[in-house]
Amino acid sequence: MNKKIILFIIISLIINVTALAQENAKSQENIGYKFYTSKSPVYYYISSFESKNGEIFVDWDDNLFVVNVDGTFTYNSSGVLVNHLNERIQIPTKADGSGNIYILQQNKIKKLSPQKDLITSFSLDDDAKLINIDDKGNYYLIYLRKEFKTNEYNDELSKIEDNIKELSQPIEIPDNGETASIAQRFLDYRDEIRDTTWALDAVKFDYDNSWKEFEFGTASLADKSKIKAKADNDLAQINAYNARLAFIAKDIDFWKDRLAQIEKNTRENIKDKQKENSEEMKRLKEDKGRILKQIEEDKKLKYEIRVYTSDKYLTSTIPIPLVQEGIPLYLCQIIVSDKSGNYYGTDGKTVYVYDWEGVLLSSFDGDHNGGLKAISQLAVDSRGNIYVMDSLKNRISKFGLGKPVLDSLK
Asked: What number is the average pLDDT over the span 36-65?
């Protein structure tokens, strides 16, 4: 084959391979960027080794210290055992950027120099939990907020519920006795009308008989005079009875109108009271909603992170929110932190990752050999790698942040 042709083919292959490599590198760079800036970071299993249960700690040089019944083991960042002491050293709880170490013993923090000389010590409040000491020596504590008042809220809600129940009852307008008095008057009039009507009918009967006897009878003139006198007397009684019945009828109409007015006033009063109760119930329900909302807000702020300087001066407070999944930071059994201020906690079976405000970012519960069984210790290095000690498996597993790009493409 012509040398020029061979040379041309080789040059073309080189150009094509270079272009593909650049395109692949650019693609990997974009994918990697997305992984490491994600709000939900991914953690992947790196390696593990057998170890008896004990304490673990990562220093500022990313060396891993393991202290158990067999002594103290030191591993470098590559996982290589570089030192083994038969004695158990005192594992620091935290360390700052100056090499000072902090040891937590019975709710008391001791600050030691790199040479293990005591610098200072201070006690924590009973309801505080130490979760971080940064490179400047500031320390971070989780506190239960004192102003969380569940019982007071419940008492207030109970009173509101009682008031709403009372307002829901049928409305009764107080009666001053007038309606009952009118009703009794009607009963009395009923009896009087009955008796008067009977008496009127009897007198009318007598009057008719007397009048007939006076007009058509055969009595003497003297007797007819007596008959007429009696008829006149009967007529006067008839007029009196009719006048009484007319008065009663008129009085009944008056009291009927009065009773109708009372009923109208009662309906209007009930309507006004219903409107008043409706407005009051609306206000109570708004108060109930406000209290329930406040309870939920307070639950979100039930715990907070307080940041203190090394001389215990409070610099800031950070409320810890609730989470939709997993568990809140303050319920974790073990809490450690990294240089970026992220927190790592566990409930014994799952590792949870939170940002500096206590917001849950990620979680994982497995390694290359099944799920984590009994997490007893956590440690984090400067790169965000997490060391997990499983006391049931007697293993320490290492997890890295962000799955490798090439693996993610498979």
From this structure: 76
